[in-house]
Amino acid sequence: MMAPGLRLMEGETSLFILGIDTSCDDTSVGIVRDGVGVLSSVVSSQEDLHSRYGGVVPEIASRNHLAMMIPVLTEALRKAGLTLGEIAAVAVTQGPGLMGSLLVGVTFGKSLAAGLGIPIIAVNHLEAHVYSSFLDRGVPEFPLLCLVVSGGHSDLILMEGHGKYLVLGITRDDAPGEVFDKVGRELGLDYPGGPHMDVVAEEGNARAFQFPIPKVSGGPFDMSFSGLKTRALLAIRSSGKTEETVRNLSASFREAVVEVLEMKLEEALREFHPRTVAVTGGVSRNRLLRERVKQLGGKYGVPVLLPQPQYCTDNGAMVASCGYFRLQRGQVASYDINAIADLELKSWEDDEP
After folding, report:
1. Vertex 333, ends 332 and 339: CA angle to 5°?
2. Domain 140-307 in CATH 3.40.50.2300
3. pLDDT reported for residue 10
4. What's the CATH class of domain 16-133+312-349?
């Protein structure tokens, strides 16, 4: 069964899109006006539930999504000052992510859309992260060079326009957020380790430990972080976990990871000459990374977009934003869409709805 076409209310000049993200352990609903204006962004975090295990437990995550879906939706509508009858379409993360978590969001989203008789829009989670840099700001000049860095991904993408992407490089092994969390856990930092390591690193010596830049076979913009993680774990075991070691290794490891990201971003800047640069995803909250990207923008005279901190991590508002621009191109999904855990972001141009 296909979703119906878009129906505007009489006299309506703006479109309100509701976005749902349950790709991992956060239950999130956001409502966005005309693709960029955030009316609400509500996130129910499961951080406390998973902290005792040192990582996300898929079964616990999916069960908690079931419990929180309606309360989060209700709060998002309240904050936006809207009713369900004023929503023009529902956008939902289809993948990538944890299968059980994705199933909850996709099933809820398409049921909500079908019940309201409005379109359902399937969104790639990584594509949504690109759009997080547009929130509360507006559409940038294209081409846009975007580095998406998170716990599961590291993708360097050239966005030539809405629906037109060229994936320049990816991580060949671990993602930056993943290695930050694992090294942070080994250092004894609270879960999740990455954000805590970023704070501790501010007091450390970034030259105390040496980490060689990884060599990667594959494309010129591909990245690797597993070797850095292994080197850090060996350093911890040989040096112990004194307060000085924790500070210095946090600073040195952060410097090494950011150096890889900065190097690849600069290489792409020189080759493709984008009109705008953006860094998105959970790791884009990293203080050193934000500072270095701003410096690169100044060096090459290119505007830099960094999402506001609340939009760096997974959120429904970025899904709604992406959904709005997909809707403008007529890309409405059917009510029988399924969750896809390993949905890759590949180079494509959306010529067909």
Report:
1. 145
2. no
3. 44
4. alpha beta
